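Extended Data, panel c. Modelled sequence:
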Amino acid sequence: PVQILTYLDGVVKVEETELKPRVGFLYPVLTHNISVFINATRERDSGQYICTVNVVDDATPLGRNVGVINLTVLVPPAVPACQLHGNPTVGANVTLSCSSKKGKPSPTYQWERTDPIPQVFFPPAQDLARGTLRLTNLSLEMSGLYVCTAENRAGFEKCSIVLEV
């Protein structure tokens, strides 16, 4: 563990960590509870945070003066990359793929065709976790604009690809 923030003898001290310019006590110490803020959170701020309260001449048994919280910083998906794999000719099979380099938790992927006629897809043709859409026995009518949405609890991003059969 790395000590980040202390209050001792009326003095607040912020240790030299990457959190230093972004962390502090939410309220003046001794006026409210000992809440802490972290501004401009980053994914690497995720982890376990421990608050220890030591009072001079306090007979509290060890372990009763400790609070623990686990922080998970969510990250919206990055703009995904859409790709076409295979040769889009009549009667052939192709796979459309969609992948986002960032996202916490890992994004799920949803494909849809928007033009000329809207169409949604379901498993097994579509793999929500891998971001793939398998199109089999291509026909001219399957041509159009395909849009992939990468989504998690923190947000979503889209990419698109034009399929010309």
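Residues 107 and 152 are 5 Å apart (CA to CA). This feature is highlighted in the accompanying rendering.
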